[in-house]
Amino acid sequence: MHHTSIDEAKGPTEGRLQFSLVNMQIGNALVSIIQGDITQQETDAIVNAANSSLLGGGGVDGAIHRAGGPRILEECIAIRAAQGGCPTGEAVITGGGNLKARHVIHTVGPVWRGGSYGEDELLRNAYRNSLRVAVENNARTIAFPCISTGAYGFPVERAARIALETVREFLTNDKSLHEVRLVTFGETDFQAYARLMGEGSL
Ligand code: AR6
User: Fold this and answer.
1) How high is the pLDDT of residue 6?
2) Going by fewer Cβ within 10 Å, which terminus of the chain is more open, N or C?
3) What is the DSSP letter of 14?
């Protein structure tokens, strides 16, 4: 069942309002799309759009490490020592450091190379494996950024469709998650999700 609404929610984050759009129940979980800053989310876990080195970077990765403090990077370095980084489409977990979230799940989305190099499947894997790792660590609520759509150049609407489809598929079988929050940063990403939800694509 669809509930489509635009609400002003949660008050200002870093000087701008955070808007929430479209809440939809799938199984036991609420899927919500918001526009906001992922570092400010109070979900059990937030997902980082990392790279295979796990050593940090720009974009959302930089923002999470800045806001979360050095402990997150220390844990990433330990994971790297143990397993040699994180392959594309896989996910690893650390604590949340100074963040409100208890965990950060670091996943690596694909670099967009035109669409015929398995990018769709790799992006699907990044969402699915992040959800799996969240459940394995008893998270009930999780927030995602728009993985791969920044520095990695994945087309926004195509990525949004994959995100929604993968979340829906996962929630059809999972009974433990209570909320999956898709956090858009820019207006364009927010509107891509809004269009898809409006079409009833989820
Ligand atoms: N909250 C939510 N979303 C954000 C935030 C934030 N604070 N900051 C940026 N975004 P990107 P990628 C959005 O480039 O494409 C890094 O250097 C941003 O607007 O962060 O997966 C890594 O180390 C965009 O919609 O990730 C990798 O090397 C989305 O997050 C590489 O970039 C993803 O953009 C990964 O590239």
Assistant:
1) 43
2) N
3) T
For residue 188, the model assigns a pLDDT of: 86
The ranges assigned to domains in the chain are 6-199
- Exposed, middle or buried: residue 51 (CB in 10 Å: 0-12, 13-18, 19+)? buried
44 is catalytic: no
CB burial of 67-81 (b: ≥16 within 10 Å; e: otherwise) equals bbeeebbebbeebbe
Given CATH 3.40.50.2300, say whether it is the number of domain 6-199. Answer: no
**Ligand 1 neighbours by CB, cut-off 6 Å:** 37-39, 49-51, 57-61, 63, 109, 145-152, 183, 185-186, 189
Average of pLDDT values for 70-93? 98
Give me the pLDDT at residue 198, please.
74
Read off φ and ψ for residue 182, nearest 5 degrees. -100, 115
Active-site option among 61, 120, 174, 189: 61
